[in-house]
Structure formats: structure tokens, C-alpha cells
Amino acid sequence: MKDPDSEAQLPLPSLAPESGAQIIQLPARAKDLSREQSPSAAASKESIKPIAKRTRSNSLWYALYLPQLKEEESAQQKKYLDQLAELMQSVSSTVSFHPQALICEVRSSLKYFSGIDVIHQKLQKLIVEQLQQWNLADSFSYAASPTISGSLLLARSGHNALVHRQENLRSALGQLSTDVLDLNKEQRRRLHNMGIRYLRDIWRLPSDGLCKRFGSSFVNQLNRALGKAAEPTHNYVPPPTFVASYDLPYELENLDRLLPIADELLAQVCDFLRRRDLSTSSLIFSLSHEKRDSTEVSIGLRVASRSQQHLMLLLETHFDKLSIPAPVVAIKVEVKRLDAFFAKSDSLLKEEASGSASYSDRNLIQFMEQLQARLGENHVKSVSNAAQHCPEDASLQLDYSEKPSRGGRTIMPAEATANPRPLWLLQEPKQLNINKGRLFHRKPIAIVSGPERIETHWWSGVDVCRDYYIAREHSGSRLWIYREKNGKKNWYLHGFFA
Amino acid sequence: MTIIQNHSDTQLPYQNQYQSVQADAFHGAGSSDIDELIQGNPKLWRGCDMAGQGMHGRSTGFPQLDAILPGRGWPEKGLMEVITPHWGMGELQLLIPLMRSIVEQGKWILWISPPYLLYAPALVQAGINTDQVLVVKLDTSCKDALWSMEKALQTENCGLVLAWQNWLPTKVLRRLQLAADTGDTLGVLFKHHDSEHSPSPIRLKIQDSYSENVSFNESEVTVIKARGNFRSLSANINLYQQA
């Protein structure tokens, strides 16, 4: 994943003398240097030259060109290339992306794999398998040369060539048709009109003139292919993953004993997150048992965090409820999701309750997560009122997670709120008896005020048509009762004013 | 100290333990200079006059109840028991002003296993923002409910935790009391039966008020125990002011 040029910071004295010459010949650089010929620049030239040279001439780039990807959408292409890049990581640590092509540096792994042929066979097998899995054509062209652009051009031409030395690049590329170059229509037409069919025709032309006719990017493209100009690349960086495990020296049955070990693992997780400036919202702990499937504890967070203390608290809560089928022999933690970390800055002055809303919100979220971890997702509800005439529908019990955001609350129309409503509502209305001509619940009931007619849902077949009264039980409690308008005209208790 | 005794002996009927004392009676009697002098000195403790002990509680919203509670209102933190023979005797009306002030502070109210459905329109009518109300469902096991209560009491974001639990051992109550102290939170336990040895600092009871008269609105609220108070006092309060 390191850029080859940054790698070049390593001083390699043994290679330095023979490599000094070529870099000066680079036209662009030579010009730069002549412009500022200060003594310090001259001194730094001495130290920089050999290093840059070394990477350029000593690397071998293996290019892989997949023309079949051209038809795919760009997002899909990227996905395919990402996965192929992951495969290519098995032979090289430097993999870079190009349109429909991947390029990796293989010089450093030549010795390990004992030759480019082995590397090629290994890659071919992996890539063909993968392409077949995607139902894509399993053919691709490849090439290897000391420059990235050179390899790319060779691969695009379908030559499957191998060029070991930079000196040979000029002749190898010379055979290629000009079609392999990245050119626009106008440039292509002009080249054709000039009678240029192959790259070797271009080699014969002076670069100043080419620069004028085709622009500097065209010349740069050729220079890069010949190893005369630097080749910046977009390298593949594998997404960060974290898995850590610990094998216990002896079996553990008591989960409390496991907590210090889990704490250690969490410390590693948080360290990992802190170094990459990430946070996590999903973790999985798996506890392995002898001869049994491992127990998995999944920790989900509403707001991504990297606080060891908070994660530990959640884990403890999960462990409280967990029963394990067998003693634990190993524990493993895996970070399932990584999120960006958003830091909150502390206020300079310690503010009182009104100012520290964000802090207390975070506290509350932590508390809610703990509550949900223990009680289960749907045991914690928030209430919300809805603009409905039917009393049962006017209050909603929502899961905490599906709670509408602040401000988006439905506000009841004013005329509906004018009549008093009870704090408690019975799950099902309870039928009231009539005893000696008086309504009776636990004790006789006397009506205080009413009626309030509620008629709704006539369109749905189960129409609601009730006369609501506020009544007082002889024990002192206030009841919300109603009488059906239709049918048997029974009395029901529907709520308490509590 | 002698002044107080003299004053109390002559003016205040505190010897009678069972007499229900109207708070207004104190103010009516104490208009003399001596009374003013005593009321003005916060360092003096007067056994039966709760109103005279400064203002460090949160007003209950019912002046008659403020008068018989130490600190003239609900405590800022701790555990409180409200005993009613049935659910729905006005125990929530008693706490509505408190809930409103807690929501205004930006804190949350947690209802742990309430016996019936909490009805949102009524909360809105009472001026309580439903966004700051959370309910733990009734079918939660007792152990989990107590666990939630302890955690909620320890959390500073919860201003009030209401729980419906009938029988709780003293040990559990002590633990909840500690949790409430750490979180600066007020916990309210609703019960059907009073237990004499409960360690909760405040125990209130709403009595059955037998009356045939429909227009009779007042319920009798008795402070069975309150830390700083040495006998039970009661007041008649119209709990259904809003209703």
C-alpha cells in the first residue's frame, strides 16, 4: 500500500553509483534543475537522484487488462476491481487501479514465488475462477514491464508481453498500434493524418513538436510509459478489519471471570479504532466451547462509539443475561462495522444543565442502549399521540428506535384536546354492571360530567359510536366510562384519570 | 429553645397525634411577633410545623400538601412510596405538576411496568412533552424491572422514575435509595399496601374517601412518614383540578 516513491526514502548505497545517470536525462526534471541552480538544490540533487532511480528501474509491474468490464457500469466496475485487487494482494503488496485494469508490483515477490511464471499462473487461476463466478468472460490480457503505463499499454494491445529491462521498453512499445493510447477523437485523427500508425513512428518525432501539436499530457503519457516521468497511482487499500482472540489457559464456566479478558480485548479494539480515527457500531464476541457451536454475543450501538468503558458496560449487560451451554475455551472479538468518528469538543467552562444538552443526550443514549440490551428491543416504548378520533388510536406506543425525531411530532387538533382525557387507558374496555339501578365498578359510580359523543370508523364496518362520561367512583377515583349508542347499549369502563 | 416550647404548648395542638391538621391552621394562629421571629430563623427546628423548615423541596403544586411536607415540597432525590388501595385513585394527578417541572428541566420520565396503557393525549393536555417519556412494558419480569429502575435512578438524565411494584424487600429498597442518591433522581414506587418498616424517606397514602356527594372533589392525602417529620399529617386536596 505504500507508494513506491515513498519507499524510496531508504538509502541504498550499494545501488547508488550505477543509477545516477538516468534521472538527469528526464527532460522535465532537467529543466527544473537548471532554473534554480542554487547550491542547496545541487546538494539535494545528489541525495535524491539515486533513490528515485532505484525504484523506477527495479520494479516490475504486472498489468491485468479486462476488456469485458467496459460494458459494466462504473460502480459495478469498481466493485469488481476492488475484489480482484484483493485477490492480487496475494502476490503483491502494491496494487493500483486503472480503467478496466489492475497493476501490481511483482519484482519484490519474484524471489519468493521463484519467477514471474509462477506468479502469473497463481493469479490466472484465482482470477479466472472469480470471473467465472461472476458469469463474465474469463479471458484477460496481461503484460509485465518496468513501468506502469508501459505494462498497461502492452496489456491493452493484447500482446501478453514480458519486458524485463527498461532499455527494451522503447522497442517493445514501438510495435504497438497507436490505438492503445488514451487519445481523444481529434488527436487520433491528427495522428492518422500524419501517417503515424505505430508508436515507433512517434519515437522518431521531436518531443517539442509533439508537445505543441498534441499537448503536454500526450507527451507525458509516452514519457511515463518509457520510464522517463513519474507515475502517480491510486493504490488499493484494503478496508480495515479487526479480529482478536484469546485462548484461555483453562476452561471457564463463570462469565464474570471472562470479563477481565474481554476487557483486554476491548482495549485492543479501542486502540485499533483510535489509531485509525474510527468508531464502531457493531461488535461480535464469540465464545468457543469444546465440541459445540460457539456462543455469539452481538453488541449493537445506536451511536457509534469507541469508548472502552461504554462497550464494556454493554458487554457486562449482555453477559448478565447469557447462559452458556458449556465451559468457554476461547474468546474472540470481531468488529463488524466501522464508522467515522465524530469527536465532540468539551466546553471551556463547565456549564450547567441547560448548556450540556449534547453531553446528556449521549448519556441517555448510552442508558437506552443498556436498557435495550437487557430487556430486549421491543420492551422499551415511547408514547406519542396521533390525531385520531377513536380513543384507542389516539395514543401510539412506538419502539424507541422508530421514534419520530423531535419537532416532527403530530400535534392533536385543538378541538380534540379540549375534552379531558384519562392518563390510563384500559387495554380492552371493561363492561360495567348495573346494580340496583346504579352503575357499579368496584364501588357505585356517579356520573360527574358528559356526555361527549365520539363517532368514527363508520366506514370500516366496526363503527365506534359512544357517549363518554367522566364518572366518580365512591372510593374517590375518576373514571372514564362510555355507553354504546348502538346494540345493547352497555356501559364500559375505558380509563382512569388516575 | 424555651421560647419554642412555650409557644408550642400554648398555641399548637401538636400533642394530638391523630388529629388531622389543616396547614392553614398554623398560619392563622401564628401572626404574633414571636411567631415571626421563629419563622425567620432557619436554624430552629419546630416539630410539627413542616412549613417553617425553609424551602428546599420542589413544590408539589398543591399548597396544602406543600404545607405538610418537610422542605415544603417533594425532595430533590430519593425514594418515595405512594400507597393507594387501587390503581387510579389520583396518584398520578398528585405528581403531574412534578412531572411537568421535570420535563421542563429537559430530563426524562421513565415509567416502569405501569398497570395500564399510558395515554398520550392526556399527557399532552397536562403539558408534558411525550418525547421525554419512556415506558418499560408491563410484561417485563420483576427482576428486569428492578434492574431498569436502579439503572434509571443512577442516570442523571432521568428526572423521575415511576414504578409499580407491590412487594419489595427492604434490601432492595435500600439499594434503590442508594441509586437515587447517586443519580440525583426521584423514584416513586406505587403500592397497594403500606409496610411499616420500609426505609423509603417518604410514604404517602391516598385514602378511600367515601362520599355520596358527587360534587365532593377532595381526596385525603396522608403523609405517613417523611424524613424530618415525626408523625403523620394529612391534607384534603382537590387532585382533579384539571379534570
From TrEMBL, chain A:
Q: Which InterPro entries match?
A: DNA/RNA_pol_sf (IPR043502), SulA_CellDiv_inhibitor (IPR050356)
| Keywords from the UniProt entry | DNA damage
- Keyword DNA damage among record annotations: yes
Domain of life, source organism: Bacteria
> Which GO BP annotation is one of this protein's?
DNA repair
Q: Where is this region: Disordered?
A: 1-20, 27-49
- Is Aminoacyl-tRNA synthetase found in the keyword set? no
Q: Which PANTHER family match?
A: BLR3025 PROTEIN, BLR3025 PROTEIN-RELATED
Q: What is this protein called?
A: UmuC domain-containing protein
Highest classification ranks of the organism:
Bacteria, Pseudomonadati, Pseudomonadota, Gammaproteobacteria, SAR86 cluster
From TrEMBL, chain B:
The answer to keyword Kinase applying to this record is no
Q: Does the keyword RNA-binding apply?
A: no
Q: Which Pfam families match?
A: SulA
Database matches in SUPFAM superfamilies: P-loop containing nucleoside triphosphate hydrolases
> Which UniProt keyword terms apply here?
DNA damage
Domain of life of the native organism: Bacteria
The alphabetized list of GO BP terms reads: DNA repair; negative regulation of cell division; SOS response
Checking PANTHER family in the record gives: BLR3025 PROTEIN-RELATED (PTHR35369), TRANSLESION DNA SYNTHESIS-ASSOCIATED PROTEIN IMUA (PTHR35369:SF3)
Protein name from the UniProt record: Translesion DNA synthesis-associated protein ImuA
Organism of origin is SAR86 cluster bacterium
